[in-house]
Amino acid sequence: MLFNSFVFAVFLPIVFCLYWLLRPVGLRWQNGVLLVASYIFYGWWDYRFLVLLFITSATDFLVGVRMDKTESDTARRWWLCFSLAANLTVLGFFKYYDFFAGSLAHITGWDMHFLKVVLPVGISFYTFQSMSYTIEVYRRHIPATHDFLAFMTFVSFFPQLVAGPIGRGHQLLLQFFEQTSFDFGKARDGLRQALWGLFKKVIIADNLSSAVDRIFSNYASLTGSELLLGAIFFGIQIYCDFSGYTDIAIGIARLFGVSLMRNFDCPYFSSNIQDFWRRWHISLTSWFRDYVYISLGGNRAGRARSLLNIMIVFFLSGLWHGANWTFVIWGLLHALLYISYLVLFHKESTKGSDSTPNRYMVLPGRIAAVAVNFLVVNLLWVFFRAKSLGHAIGYFKSMILNPWHLQALIPHVGMILACICLMGVEWCHRNRAHGLDISYMPLPARWVIYYALIGMMVWWGNTLYVPFIYFAF
Amino acid sequence: MCRLSILPSNASALAIFVARLLLFISPLVVVAGLFEWQLYRMGESISIRSYVRRYGDCADVPLLLKRRYFSQAFNLYHVAMMKYRKPSLVAIGSSRMSALRSRMFYPLHGGFYTAPNFIYCMEDIEAYAGLISSGYLSKPRAVIIGLDPWWLNVCEERKVWISRDMSDDVYSFSAHISVFRRYMKGLVSGKAVLRGPPKEHYAVSDMNPSVDTPIVAFSYTNYVDRENPPVISRIRSHKNQFTGFKELDPAKLAILYRVIGQFREMGVEVGVIQPPFSNEIVRLLDGNPVKYSWWKPYRDWLPGELEKRGIPCVRASSPAEYGLYDAPHMYDGFHADSSYMTFLVEELIRQSPTGSVLSAVSLEHLRGLRALPKGEPAVFFNIPGSQEVTNAAMNVSIQ
């Protein structure tokens, strides 16, 4: 079930009404409604996927309970390993079997058997979410829960089930143990955020997708300027697509009084690569930081080891995105950039607010830094979008060797202006929760803006089905 | 024990929220509702399912849905009709098979169904055969294929559109949005076609003519190639479906033979009609065998190949071969009228082996249905150039 579908427009009000009407009956009933709704939501793609979701939930719930029953660190460690192995086996089988089999066949020439397994939607997201629970229970950050209903609801919560943000036990799970009152302001702002997310997806991302598809399919015959624009367009497309989905997810969750973590914080206004990764897909990068980087030793084992750990995290992050070497290369290139930045600016910590150099950068310097960072990040997106390494290399070759004509950009002026307007709005609201956080405006002005956004979506929205990019992960 | 009372502030906050939301979306609902009502009133958003319910039992079902904005979805329409009617005798092809009428196939007329605008490539025929072999559609006793030449053109690329997963646009939210946009643009430009009184729907009574109702030709006195662009200019300039058409593609011929084999394995009889062209087009094609090198293999060689396989095939003709003129019998360069089609059906029946399903059609009844236009001599002209002499004498001009 897609957020931008008629079925969802009917589904959501029903769930909303049931959820709040059952509030007087008790929290368990409310959680029950969310659980049933989430399974219907997920099963709409393919009912067979529900089995996997249930198995993941049940496994980690039982692991949590077992860990809670024993004080032995060794036993707890074994239970954690069991949870990680189970989750990663499922993920590895469905997502990576054919990829590794194909790579092995290519290297060794062996005749490998391919399974052609269908990738369950959202498997990367909910397995990571479920694993975060067992890791946090193991680390004694949260107690294990004995409420199976609440735990199942935590793993399968439909707004963020298929494309995040990846929730954590200490942040999301605990919300299913507390019954909240309906918060008018929260719900209203949630709807606003969902509308903004829908706008970004339907108007910007989906309309950019046709231009991006055309440019990436015919790169050999296009000008260098168009190819550069194509890379930037894809960068904006993937941002609007993914952050749009996240905004919708966060907005819808707020209708039910549930707070999801922020996943994007104006990443294209970053002035360096470290800042970029603090603002892009925050739930995933913080997951890798907290559960992989720190588990590997973080920066406690020396500089060299710290940099190696960063390399490993980016490698895994690239691999997480998809079963293709282009994603791995993309991750490793980001690792090289990140490490280079740390080495050049002698940055020891991956945490903290803004990096030291930026505080002393004057405005023109900062603008230049943002522009360079934007350009570099969007060029790296070429690896993300390309079908293969050869495709990516061919794209870059054409970008450099083909002639550059500004006239080639004229057909794209409309989309360029739309992207600039979007970035302008995001800049103006960079210190607010989301781009449509206009609670400071009077009611009539707000309603005019809402109707204008809806009118734009009806008039200019791409009516061809364009799947959310991150559904593929 | 459950607390059944809601905290007042919570309930009122929820009520205010819902009320404000309903107030906000009410103008949108009103606009959408008015638009949808107008669509329905104009017959635009009537579903294919409704069409099948209304016309499914008619002798000659409406050959075109009355849609101008939504996709006509002929693939889904014909499959839905065939699922409902379970015909024993089916004619499939492009729009050039739309002039067939059930009463031509008396006494098999009750089980006859023609599906024009259904097939656009060889792969479509294969997909149709697949629906029968899988049991999705009932198995007819005989299939008549209206075989267009460009299905054998290697340069003609068409996507297969027949499958089990076809959908009706009227149930698609995005299709309604597209239609809304086009309608609003039409309103602004003054070209919206959904204004005014409702379109007339087909009267069920008109779809059930008596089995003896004569089949008349068009009442045109001048022949005009009404296609856009005209068929003859497409052929001359090697454009549209004639782009790059030099020979019959062996791969596509292989599909044809394979499908025929599949039908035979299922016990389905096959007959082929090569739909006709206008006199002026056939003259053009016959006069330039090198330039239009696909014509002779298609018209002369292929029927022979099919006949070797025991498949009766009526070769591509022109009205003159039956003593007819373009004006009353050709809507354009390659769409014939029903009275001309009676000649082709007669030819097919004659070629069908004795004891076959098609041989049971009454030729006497078929001939009796023909009502030639006033002034048209009911004799055959075989003299080259006689067409022009007769047309000049009858003040009929060929453009």
Q: What would your notes on this structure say?
A:
The complex is a heterodimer of chains A (about 475) and B (about 400). Chain A is mostly helical and about 475 residues long. Chain A has 18 helices and no strands. Chain A has helices at about 5-20, 25-45, 50-70, 75-110, 125-140, 150-155, 160, 185-215, 225-255, 275-280, 280-295, 305-320, 325-345, 355-360, 365-385, 390-400, 415-430, 445-460. Chain A is globular and about 65 Å long. Chain B is an alpha/beta fold. Mean pLDDT of chain B is about 85; it is low at about 1-10 and about 375-399. Chain B has a 5-stranded parallel beta sheet. A two-stranded parallel ribbon of chain B has the order 4-7. Helices cover about 40% and strands about 5% of the residues of chain B. Chain B is built from 13 helices and 7 strands. Chains A and B meet through α8 and α18 of A and α1 and α5 of B.
Secondary-structure element pattern of chain B, one letter each:
HHHEEHEHEHHEHHEHHHEH
Biggest protein-protein interface?
A-B, 24 and 24 residues
Query: What would you call the structural class of chain B?
Result: alpha/beta
CA-based shape of chain B: globular
* Largest sheet composition of chain A: none
SS-based class of chain A: mainly alpha
Overall pLDDT level of chain B: 85
Rg of chain A over CA atoms, rounded to whole Å, is 23 Å
Distance between the termini of chain A: 16 Å
Strand order of the largest sheet of chain B: 2-1-3-5-6
Mean pLDDT of chain A: 88
Gross morphology of chain A:
globular
Question: Count of DSSP helices of chain A?
Answer: 18
Largest sheet of chain B: 5 strands, parallel
Question: Beta-strand level of the residues of chain A, as a percent range?
Answer: under 5%
What's the Cα radius of gyration of chain B?
Answer: 26 Å
Spans where pLDDT lies below 50 across 5 or more residues of chain A: 348-357
The helix-strand sequence of chain A is: HHHHHHHHHHHHHHHHHH
Low-confidence stretches of chain B: 1-8, 374-399
Name the assembly state. Answer: heterodimer
